[in-house]
């Protein structure tokens, strides 16, 4: 009795193995996506998937004359979960192309994994760690979006020259993404002669900024805040309640629409805060406005305006599909033609054109914005300036940029 | 000097918040030996429900009441329909609360999403108090938390020491068998204690959510804070919770001010040190 | 263990199926399901020894495993170029010794208080260690952790090959399983269960209660260390998120779902957990994975304290008691 039941289970397992190995026909191309669809950041992953869906709708689920099979997979922003997800896509589902992931440390992990799977092409979702492509890149990993440092392009110069700030402090969470943004910001700011009085790296998950606020010296001109979302809201309101009155400088996600539109007391004290990033919600360019309208039409229950996650995944997926069109779906010879097409791609996106550098890293336009109060009293980010075609070394000297060192708490030294 | 004073004040006000959360946890453990690993979930759920109360009524006081009462009710139900049947099975009770906390965290995420919520505190409590010697300005609301915690602490003390039910609870903490032998309705006492502990967690959720904010993950944060506070202070003692909270609150803030990198680790070091020297906690009685 | 148990048809068929599995399965099933199950099983096996037989629920198993994994990166080689590059056997031995010392110290600390405190203390220790690895760049490389910790080639077998890695994990799992099955029936194992059931009586009988408990922690730590080393070889990497509160609780879930009453529970729980973890996204909304796994956990704690193996026993071996449950 016991024995036969065990054999039955054995058979069931074997059956499961066979049935799960779906045979890929020559007329379809399998693309796997990875986004954060679980945990506290699930909202962002869903938003990323909206970008994927927009691209798929635009292409009608076909590229290069072949039908697309999309397999969605989820992580929770930890590298382990991203590796689990990508292994399932590649080793079990047998995808040809992977689009993802969303967060920086996941991207670094997947880059390392990509090196072990030369037969698969990896296109980054929105992860923005610098060394995913800058140092020791994988030959089959492509990133059409910027990294955290690129997103800060132009901000250091703007606050030095226009706002006249000379001496600042920085505040960010104690991990690589804020370090990367700080590097991008300080690179320009310090080259011009700006000084950093102190850098506060707050442990991840800390919600109580009161002691940090008390530690901010009085003789500074402004505070660069690299916190995002919930932390930004927390810091901003605690700073105001403690009687703080120094002007702020924002990281890419510090004063985005989710913070400006968040529930609670009005945030008039952030008016005038400059920041920089890959999108600018209020940009009056017709292509951007049309894309924004598409987003709203396709996702009435989405964000009030598309976030950088939808934007990033849309660009990444569009790049994957445009290149497929160019090679007519030909993935033969270890994706050789396809990768050449990706490498030479000049992609027209809702935010200007994107091309790749020698490390397969995107060169993109960056938007410099400032929080402004609209006539109806709502807050929005007004476009001050577009920094065209920013590359990974912030359009400076590559060797000098590399010499700054890997991102870290005290990079650049800013002496 | 200014930084030191502000940091000390920050530490004390944070301790006040920790005390509000941990006292309920400690009380429930002291009486029922129930290590309620879902205590953090009660904190977060109380905060969310309090937020809904404020949305509906526009009143922050309603949020406080809503957070306290809803969690007290939930505590009553949990004790009556679940933990009552697991009495004496400490490990199973604890495992059940772990299961509840996993599910609760996920369902709260499903319903309220990953967004951050902030309460609109009354204008009288918002902003900075100016003109204080040396430190010049300090947020009014944080001082309010200190006052609230002291008030709750005194109320708890009076309740436990001056009322009949309170004395029964204390008797139960000291010797459960004796309490039931005297013919007291132990189930009622247990249910009331659990309701009070859960209600305090819900109340702390609104108070803490107003000082900082509410978001997924806060459940775990305050569960850990409660664990460390009661391990350090001593289980089942209101005074122990206060001492533990002050120690942990100050450590965290001094850590942030003077050694931010390892600030979060120091509290655990203190816990290990206390365990090594005085396993029952600073104010705990040896078992 | 009785001789008949070892050569019973069920055991032989299970062994043959496991050995033949690589003939049927692709790389994903071998590593992501097969090897992962064995690894989770080995780590959870330590918890079953502690909790099921010793009555001490430790949430620090994953921290001990993590320290072993980190040691592999720190003393061996990693892609950040920060490893010391010691010879492999030395690295492995160092990793196991360090992790065992760490786990034993956690034991020393937590046996200072009685029973139910253990779960709180070990959770706090696990969290403290997690924070420390995330903040410390000098040793643990902070938030980023280490990548490029490659499984080695031993005796001509490249352990990065899914088949060989599967067999490696299978061998360690089988060895650990047999060792623990044997151990719990030894004098030490019986004494440990005596300590679990009535520490005072055992003390009166002249047993050193604390020594027994701490020894159990040491043995569980060795298992965790093996699991930790296999984990970094499987993932090529380790970072603080691998040892956070989530993974710590996962091990408890695995042990409880499988059943704390018998060593095999660790592997049954690990298999169920791994399958749900990997395929939940295909069956249900991945987002609600935690609700599903939490509900299963709660259901088992409430209605079948001896886990899935408890059901098995009740279904197929009516009359045989399985009282060795967690309820005390």
Shape of chain B: globular
Rg calc of chain A:
23 Å
Q: Identify the CATH class of the largest domain in chain A.
A: Alpha Beta
User: Helicity range of the residues of chain B?
Assistant: over 70%
The 3D shape of chain A can be described as globular
CATH architecture of the largest domain in chain A: 3-Layer(aba) Sandwich
Summarize model confidence as the mean pLDDT of chain A: 89
Structure description:
- The complex is a heterotrimer of chains A (415), B (287) and C (328).
- Chain A has 415 residues and is α/β, with parallel strands linked by helices.
- Chain A contains 13 helices and 15 strands.
- Chain A folds into two domains: 26-146 and 288-360, Response regulator (Rossmann fold, 3-Layer(aba) Sandwich); 150-277 and 365-402, Response regulator (Rossmann fold), CATH 3.40.50.2300.
- In chain A, a hairpin with a 2-residue loop joins strand 2 (62-63) and strand 3.
- The N and C termini of chain A lie far apart (78 Å).
- Mean pLDDT of chain A is 89; it is low at 1-24.
- Chain B is mainly alpha-helical and 287 residues long.
- Chain B has eleven helices and two strands, in the order ααααββααααααα.
- In chain B, a hairpin with a 3-residue loop joins strand 1 and strand 2 (136-139).
- In chain B, helix 1 runs parallel beside helix 5 (140-162) and helix 10 packs across helix 11.
- Chain C has a domain at 41-244.
- Chain C is built from 14 helices and four strands.
- Chain C has helices at 3-6, 9-24, 27-53, 61-75, 88-110, 117-135, 162-185, 187-197, 199-204, 209-235, 245-258, 264-283, 289-303, 307-316, and strands spanning 146-147, 153-154, 157-158, 237-238.
- In chain C, helix 5 packs across helix 10 (209-235), helix 7 runs antiparallel to helix 10 and helix 11 (245-258) crosses helix 12.
- Classes of the chains: A alpha/beta (415), B mainly alpha (287), C mainly alpha (328).
- Chains in contact: A-B, A-C, B-C.
- The B-C interface holds B 33, 35, 37, 89-92, 94-96, 98-100, 102-103, 105-107, 110, 220, 224, 227-228, 231, 261-262, 264-265, 267-269, 271-272, 275-276, 279-280, 287 and C 51, 55, 57, 109, 112-117, 119-121, 123-125, 127-128, 131-132, 135-136, 245, 249, 252, 256, 287-291, 293-295, 297-298, 301-302, 305, 326-328.
């Amino acid at each position: 009795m016991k024995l036969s039941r065990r054999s039955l289970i054995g058979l069931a397992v074997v059956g499961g193995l066979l049935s799960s190995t779906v045979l890929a026909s020559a007329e379809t191309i399998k693309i796997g996506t990875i986004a954060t669809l679980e945990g506290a950041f699930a909202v962002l992953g869903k938003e990323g998937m909206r970008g994927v869906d927009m691209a798929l709708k635009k292409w009608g689920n076909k590229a290069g004359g072949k039908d697309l099979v999309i397999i969605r997979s989820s992580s929770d922003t930890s590298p382990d979960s991203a590796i689990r997800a990508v292994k399932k896509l590649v080793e079990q589902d047998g995808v040809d192309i992977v689009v993802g992931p969303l967060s920086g440390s996941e991207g670094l992990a997947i880059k390392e994994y990509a090196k072990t799977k030369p037969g698969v092409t990896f296109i980054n979702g929105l992860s923005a760690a610098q060394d995913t492509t800058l140092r020791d890149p994988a030959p089959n990993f492509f990133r059409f979006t910027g990294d955290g440092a690129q997103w800060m392009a132009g901000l250091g110069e703007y606050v030095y020259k226009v706002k006249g700030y000379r001496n600042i402090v920085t505040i960010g969470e104690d991990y690589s993404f804020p370090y990367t943004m700080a590097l991008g910001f300080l690179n320009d700011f310090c080259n011009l002669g700006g000084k950093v009085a102190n850098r506060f790296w707050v442990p991840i998950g800390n919600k109580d900024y009161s002691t940090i606020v008390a530690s901010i010296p009085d003789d500074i001109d402004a505070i660069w805040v690299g916190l995002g979302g919930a932390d930004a809201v927390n810091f901003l309101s605690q700073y105001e309640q403690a009687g703080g009155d120094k002007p702020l400088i924002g990281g890419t996600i510090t004063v985005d629409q989710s913070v400006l539109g968040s529930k609670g007391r009005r945030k008039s004290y952030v008016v005038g805060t400059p920041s920089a990033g890959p999108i600018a919600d209020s940009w009056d360019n017709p292509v951007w406005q049309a894309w924004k309208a598409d987003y709203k039409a396709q996702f009435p229950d989405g964000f009030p305006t598309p976030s950088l996650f939808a934007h990033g995944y849309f660009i990444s997926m569009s790049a994957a599909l445009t290149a497929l069109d160019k090679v007519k779906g030909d993935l033969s010879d270890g994706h050789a033609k396809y990768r050449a097409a990706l490498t030479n791609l000049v992609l027209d996106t809702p935010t200007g054109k994107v091309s790749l550098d020698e490390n397969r890293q995107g060169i993109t336009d960056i938007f410099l914005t400032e929080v402004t109060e609209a006539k109806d009293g709502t807050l929005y980010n007004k476009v001050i300036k577009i920094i065209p075609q920013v590359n990974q070394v912030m359009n400076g000297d590559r060797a000098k940029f590399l010499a700054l060192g890997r991102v870290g708490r005290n990079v650049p030294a800013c002496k | 000097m200014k930084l030191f004073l502000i940091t000390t004040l920050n530490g004390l006000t944070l301790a006040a918040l920790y005390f509000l959360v941990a006292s309920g946890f400690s009380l429930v453990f002291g009486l029922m030996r129930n290590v309620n690993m879902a205590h953090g979930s009660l904190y977060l759920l109380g905060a969310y429900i309090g937020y809904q109360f404020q949305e509906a009524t526009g009143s922050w006081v309603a949020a406080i009441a809503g957070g306290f009462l809803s969690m007290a009710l939930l505590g009553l139900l949990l004790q009556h329909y679940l933990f009552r049947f697991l009495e004496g099975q400490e490990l199973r009770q604890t495992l059940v609360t772990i299961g509840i906390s996993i599910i609760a965290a996920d369902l709260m995420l499903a319903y309220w999403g990953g967004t951050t919520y902030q309460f609109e505190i009354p204008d009288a409590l918002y902003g900075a108090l100016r003109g204080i010697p040396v430190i010049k300005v300090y947020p009014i609301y944080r001082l309010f938390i200190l006052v609230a915690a002291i008030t709750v602490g005194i109320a708890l003390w009076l309740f436990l020491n001056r009322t009949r039910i309170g004395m029964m609870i204390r008797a139960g903490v000291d010797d459960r068998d004796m309490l039931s032998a005297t013919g007291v309705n132990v189930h009622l006492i247990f249910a009331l204690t659990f309701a009070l502990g859960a209600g305090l967690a819900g109340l702390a959720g609104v108070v803490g959510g107003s000082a900082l904010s509410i978001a997924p993950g806060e459940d775990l944060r305050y569960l850990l804070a409660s664990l460390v506070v009661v391990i350090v202070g001593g289980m089942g003692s209101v005074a122990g919770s206060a001492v533990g909270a002050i120690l942990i609150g100050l450590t965290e803030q001094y850590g942030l001010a003077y050694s931010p990198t390892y600030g979060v680790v120091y509290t655990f070091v203190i816990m290990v040190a206390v365990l090594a020297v005085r396993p029952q906690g600073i104010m705990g009685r040896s078992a | 263990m009785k001789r008949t148990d070892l050569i019973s048809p069920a055991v032989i068929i299970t062994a043959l199926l496991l050995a033949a599995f690589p003939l049927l399965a692709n790389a994903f099933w071998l590593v992501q399901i097969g090897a992962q199950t064995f690894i989770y099983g080995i780590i959870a096996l330590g918890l079953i020894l502690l909790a099921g037989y010793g009555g001490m629920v430790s949430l620090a198993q994953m921290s001990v495993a993590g320290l072993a994994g980190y040691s592999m990166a720190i003393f061996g080689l990693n892609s950040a170029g920060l490893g010391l590059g010691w010879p492999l056997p030395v690295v492995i031995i160092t990793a196991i010794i360090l992790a065992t010392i760490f786990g034993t110290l956690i034991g020393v600390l937590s046996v200072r208080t009685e029973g139910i405190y253990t779960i709180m203390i070990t959770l706090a220790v696990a969290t403290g260690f997690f924070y420390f690895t995330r903040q410390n760049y000098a040793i643990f490389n902070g938030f980023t952790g280490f990548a490029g910790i490659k499984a080695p080639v031993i005796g001509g077998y490249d352990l990065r090959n899914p088949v060989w890695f599967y067999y490696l994990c299978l061998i360690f799992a089988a060895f650990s399983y047999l060792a623990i099955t044997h151990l719990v029936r030894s004098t030490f194992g019986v004494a440990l269960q005596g300590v679990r059931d009535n520490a005072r009586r055992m003390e009166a009988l002249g047993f050193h209660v604390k020594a027994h408990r701490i020894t159990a922690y040491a043995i569980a730590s060795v298992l965790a260390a093996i699991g930790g080393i296999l984990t970094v070889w499987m993932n090529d990497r380790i970072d603080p998120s691998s040892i956070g509160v989530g993974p710590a609780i996962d091990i408890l879930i695995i042990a409880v779902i499988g059943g704390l009453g018998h060593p095999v529970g660790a592997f049954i729980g690990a298999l169920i957990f791994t399958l749900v973890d990997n395929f939940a996204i295909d069956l249900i909304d991945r987002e609600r994975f935690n609700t599903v796994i939490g509900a299963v956990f709660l259901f088992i704690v409430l209605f079948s304290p001896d886990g899935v193996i408890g059901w098995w026993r009740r279904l197929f071996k009516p009359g045989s008691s399985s009282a060795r449950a967690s309820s005390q």
